[in-house]
Specification:
Elements: H1 8-23, H2 33-39, H3 43-51, H4 66-84
Length: 85
Amino acid sequence: MKIKFLSLEKMNTAYREELNQAASRVIASGWSPLIVAAYHGNHRVVNFLLKRGALASDESYNGTLVLMYEKDFALKARVRLHLIV
């Protein structure tokens, strides 16, 4: 039995395509990976997903937009910062 190996370039292309599809996939909770990252204030992941094709206009199952989650996280972080200072 011969084993067929894919070239590194083909493997990278397939991996990038899967990442692009996953960037906008909605998970069982009704939230996309972008919304989860925005909700938790993980800006590096938000930027990564946007570069991979996630929609900035994405919304959760209840209609909340990504930007609203980002705003909520920023306000909570600001309140926590004021409590510490």
